[in-house]
Design brief:
- This protein has 3 domains: 82 residues, Winged helix-like DNA-binding domain superfamily/Winged helix DNA-binding domain (Arc Repressor Mutant, subunit A, Orthogonal Bundle); 98 residues, D-Maltodextrin-Binding Protein, domain 2 (3-Layer(aba) Sandwich), CATH 3.40.190.10; 90 residues, D-Maltodextrin-Binding Protein, domain 2 (3-Layer(aba) Sandwich).
- The protein is 41% helix and 23% strand.
- It contains 10 helices and 11 strands.
- The N and C termini lie far apart (64 Å).
- Keywords: DNA-binding, Transcription, Transcription regulation.
- InterPro entries: LysR-type_TF_proteobact-type, LysR_HTH_N, LysR_subst-bd, WH-like_DNA-bd_sf, WH_DNA-bd_sf.
- Belongs to the LysR transcriptional regulatory family.
- This is LysR family transcriptional regulator.
Length: 298
């Protein structure tokens, strides 16, 4: 008999293309993912993935299993969502997903406040750059930066929040060094998966030809704090940091709109409604910070 949990691990690898991605999504270690996939392959008597240096490539047999597994998953999720939607108790697990920067630099104090108000709710924060699938019940609530509302999945319930703005920031020490002539040009700190926004050019500080690259938002923030160069950041990060200043001659630009997203019957549960209402009020209070309308920290 096939274990549904083994199928869940198979689906995570198929969707992520690697054991690492599946382990991160499921919150387990690599060995667990490998063991679960091997168990399913043994039960089915077929190899479901080709193990390549670049990742896991699904086989023909795996493609057949994938289609059936997704049908089973959809039915399971529909049944679970209907039962959960009738749950009007506050106690239980609440899984919330968002980008790491929003979690660590904006909303974590609010999660702590919500946890104090509702200690019976078990909060699990999925701090990930890639979107989590609410339809597949990978999370209960998603807080996302949306650039075009037409891209929102039609099956999700969306609560629109404030608009975000970004600016160009540099460390105060590096800005002082440039003003006194100690350095003529300053590197750009670039996130490889985002690149440099066109609007970021044109400030008073000339850019060096050789950039500093990173794939991590946390590393990007540390690099600008350590005077590695200048970079684009959301205003709620840059303006709140006493070590940073806006680059002279640059302007703020829209960075997207925050949306609170829920799915189907899940949004009807009491703990989800309490949480989304709470976060919506907190985001409204943050409008000046998110729009760059507060004075940067001195």
């Amino acid at each position: 008999m096939i274990d549904w949990d083994d199928v869940r691990y198979f689906l995570a690898v198929a969707r992520g293309g690697s054991v690492r991605s599946a382990a991160e999504r499921l919150g387990v270690n690599h060995a667990t993912v490998l063991r679960r996939v091997a168990q399913l392959e043994n039960r089915l008597g077929a190899r479901l993935f080709d193990r390549l240096p670049s990742g896991y490539r699904i086989t023909g047999a795996g493609q057949e299993v994938l289609g059936l597994a997704e049908q089973i998953e959809a039915s399971s999720n529909q049944l679970e969502a209907r039962i959960i939607g009738r749950d009007q108790g506050v106690r239980g697990l609440l899984r919330v997903t968002m980008a790491p920067t929003i979690a660590t630099h904006l909303l974590m104090p609010d999660f702590a406040a919500f946890a104090q108000l509702h200690p019976e709710v078990e909060i699990s924060v999925l701090s990930l750059d890639e979107p989590v699938n609410l339809t597949n019940r990978e999370a209960d609530v998603a807080i996302r930066v949306v650039y075009d509302r037409n891209t929102l999945p039609p099956n999700l319930h969306g609560l629109q929040g404030p608009e975000l703005y970004s600016g160009v920031y540099v460390s105060r020490d590096l800005l002082a060094a440039w003003r006194t002539g100690e350095c003529e040009r300053v590197r750009w700190i670039v996130k490889d998966n985002v690149g440099l926004h066109n609007w970021a050019h044109g400030g008073e500080i000339p850019a060096a030809e050789v950039p500093f690259r990173t794939t991590s938002a946390d590393a990007q923030i540390v690099a600008v704090r350590k005077a590695m160069g200048m970079t684009t950041l959301p205003c709620f990060v840059g303006d709140a940091d006493p070590l940073l200043a806006r680059v002279p001659g640059t302007r703020l630009r829209p960075h997207g709109t925050l949306w609170i997203l829920t799915q189907g019957e899940t949004r009807k549960t009491k703990r989800v409604r309490l949480f989304t209402d709470f976060v919506s009020r907190r985001l409204t209070a943050y409008v000046p910070l998110l729009a760059g309308r507060i004075d940067p920290v001195d």
